[in-house]
Specification:
Radius of gyration: 18 Å
Largest sheet: none
Number of helices: 9
Order of helices and strands: HHHHHHHHH
Number of domains: 1
Distance between the termini: 12 Å
Amino acid sequence: MSEFMCERKEMMSTSKWISGKRSPNMRLKLAAVVAGLGVAATVVSGCDASTPAAGASTPATMSTSAMAHGANTDAEVKLYTAQRNLWSQHMEWTYSTVNAFFHDQKALQPTVDRLLQNQRDIGTAFAAYYGPDKGKQLTALLTTHINDAVPVLKAAQAGDKAGLQSAMNAWYANAKQVADFLSSLNSGSWPVVDSEAMWHEHIDQTAAYAVDILKNDFTGAIRDYGKAEEHMASMADMYSEGIIKQSPDKFTG
């Protein structure tokens, strides 16, 4: 891994992970779509949108990310790689689940199962640094994060504006819980205000491409997914950098 041995850069403050301008409130966008559609989206024949690969923006590779953040040991490179992999899977299987919900019910349960496995994998990864109990708590919160998306999709598909508002409120509330929990593990690197902003934006961006998929606008879905993918890659790097800063002894050699 000698190609990754480079001079460590000064740790970036967490605020640098936050985009300069917050996304528009996706509850308004969803409500507008629901008002316009009012019915379930129809299946697009001959269009395979189960994954957003074609045309999606591509974040920096795991190795490039590690180099950019000054990773100077194999252990640090491994962490950056593992975190990028876990959170990219979170994105990929969420997109696939949303698409299956609207357009391919036969694929829905296996896809949801794989997405839920990803939440367990993330919890296990954090448990390595914060203990098994914290890992299980994170998995539980992330599982709720996935489950709370279901009422949002159902309400949007049914044109239920009141139900949509209630479901979105619950989804944002859970995102705040996830953000606050992660901040409690490493408040020095992941302050509450920044952590909450990151997770709020994640919900905004997920809602954006979910709206596109509901409307059968797969060009828009790929575009908006790309933005969400880049945001999640930054979040993954933030977690890696924070863990290394908090536990440098685990990354020596």
